Amino acid sequence: MQPAPPGTVDGEDITPAELRLAARNHGQPLEGLRHDITPVGLHYLLIHYDIPAVDPASFALEVDGAVERPFRLTLDELRARERVDLPVTFECAGNGRTLLSPRAVSQPWVLEAIGTACWGGTPLRPLLDEAGVRPEAVEVILTGLDRGVEGGEMQSYRRGLGLDECAEALLAFDMNGMPLPPQHGFPLRLVVPGWYGMTNVKWLTRITLEDKPFEGYHNAVSYRLTDAEGVPGEPVTRMAPRSLMVPPGVPDFMSRVRHLEPGPVELSGRAWSGWGGIERVEVSTDGGESFADAQLEEPVSRAAWCGWRFEWDAPPGEHVLCSRATDSAGNTQPLEAHWNLGGYANNALERVEVTVASI
Question: What domains appear along the chain, each with residue ranges and CATH number?
Answer without folding.
Answer: 8-235 (3.90.420.10), 242-356 (2.60.40.650)
